């Protein structure tokens, strides 16, 4: 199983990025897939998640209304559209897969994880 993130980069405040999580070795419609991030000196933070049937999504309070999670079953890929980015969104973003119908309560429940992609929001 492999999860590969892409789409990170440097963007100005107020800008947008779309992160991709390409999944190999398991089906995105059989697992809950989520995004979390870690900024230097800070704890990991769960950002968003989509459950295996895609009828339920989760967003942290800090990104609600700005980020949107989606998936493409044909491409076996999960996306995170990030709009109105702020400097405090700067972090390494990771995707994870949990062998569960529901999004996990804790980040430790992501049994499979990617290597991360850097997002930097700065002018």
Distance between the first and last residues' Cα: 37 Å
How many H/I helices?
0
Which term fits the overall shape?
A: globular
Chain-averaged pLDDT: 96
Helix coverage percent of residues? Answer: under 10%
Helix-strand pattern? EEEEEEEEEEE
Structural class: mainly beta
Largest sheet: 7 strands, mixed
Beta-strand content bin: over 45%
Number of strands: 11
Low-pLDDT stretches? none
Radius of gyration from the alpha-carbon trace, in angstroms: 13 Å
Task: Give keywords.
123 residues, mainly beta, 7-stranded mixed sheet, 4-stranded antiparallel sheet, globular
Describe the 3D structure.
The protein is an all-beta fold. 0% of the residues lie in helices and 48% in strands. The protein has no helices and 11 strands. The chain has strands spanning 2-6, 9-11, 17-24, 32-38, 45-50, 57-59, 67-72, 77-82, 91-98, 112-113, 117-121. The strands form 2 sheets. Strands 2, 4, 5, 6, 9, 10 and 11 form a 7-stranded mixed sheet that branches. It has a 4-stranded antiparallel sheet with strand order 1-3-8-7, with no helix packed on it. Strand 4 and strand 5 form a beta hairpin. The chain is globular and about 40 Å long.
């Amino acid at each position: 199983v492999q999860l590969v993130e892409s789409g990170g980069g440097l963007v100005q405040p107020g800008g947008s990025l779309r992160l991709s999580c390409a999944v190999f070795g398991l089906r995105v419609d059989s697992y809950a897939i989520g995004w979390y991030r870690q900024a230097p000196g800070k704890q990991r933070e769960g950002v968003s998640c989509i459950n295996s049937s895609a009828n339920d999504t989760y967003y942290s309070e800090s990104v609600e209304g700005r980020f949107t999670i989606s998936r493409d079953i044909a491409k076996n890929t999960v996306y995170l559209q990030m709009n109105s980015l702020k400097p405090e969104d700067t972090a390494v973003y990771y995707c994870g897969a949990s062998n569960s119908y529901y999004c996990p309560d804790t980040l430790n429940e992501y049994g499979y994880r990617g290597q991360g992609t850097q997002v930097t929001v700065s002018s």
